[in-house]
Specification:
Keywords: Membrane, Transmembrane, Transmembrane helix. The chain is mainly alpha-helical.
């Protein structure tokens, strides 16, 4: 239970024993809390970017990573990396802009509007990151289908026994299941980290609606 909820309970239980807090004071409290939440969204996006960037550099020298780069090509791998980095940098900038807007907001209406914008930006960020992961994974899956020597040897073996269709189905079904698991884990990560903050931000928005009304 946060400070605002405790104050409300005290008012309900004790009537006039506690001094009434003005709408301006409630707004100031919600303003500070909203600014803090958006700052955390920005910080988490920066930490996430730094973490995955470090992880990428650490895994670049592993045999599996080198083989994938060899199959998909250095150029395409660079394009994937640039797109991913671009997505992160653009949304970190948007989170920063929204943080500054909320910090400098001076009316209930503007604060409510900026909270809604923040929620939309975070939702779009999550959707775009997941969509990018799906597209990138499917492209890599398709490239490996035509270039991975181990898979091609397995496929030709099945082809000799008249089971090329079954082999292809198994390959793509297994690949799609793998991609689905990766996307699910990412979605749960974003839901846990950003979802908690958005839930708190939405609570602030609902409180601000009462003041505005």
């Amino acid at each position: 239970m946060d400070v605002l909820d405790k104050l409300k309970n005290d008012w309900n239980k004790n009537g006039d024993r506690y001094p009434k807090i003005s709408e301006n004071e409630i707004y100031a409290m919600l303003h500070r809390r909203s600014s803090s939440i958006v700052k955390w969204i920005l910080l988490i996006s920066i930490i996430e970017f730094a973490f995955f960037l470090t992880l990428t550099f650490m895994l670049n020298d592993t045999p599996s990573a080198k083989s994938i780069v060899e199959f998909i090509g250095t150029s395409l791998n660079t394009v994937f990396g640039a797109i991913d980095m671009g997505i992160n940098l653009v949304f970190m900038y948007l989170f920063y802009v929204n943080y500054k807007k909320i910090t400098n907001t001076d009316t209930v209406k503007n604060l409510m509007s900026n909270i809604l914008k923040t929620r939309k930006i975070v939702s779009r960020y999550i959707f775009i990151k997941l969509a990018y992961t799906v597209v990138m994974s499917l492209v890599v899956l398709l490239i490996l289908y035509y270039n991975d020597p181990e898979w091609l040897a397995t496929f030709h073996n099945y082809e000799e026994h008249g089971k090329s269709v079954q082999a292809t189905l198994v390959y793509f079904i297994g690949g799609i299941i793998g991609v689905s698991l990766i996307v699910t884990v990412l979605w749960l990560f974003y839901k846990l980290i950003y979802g908690i903050l958005l839930k708190r931000l939405n609570k602030n928005y609902q409180e601000l609606k009462k003041i505005e009304i």
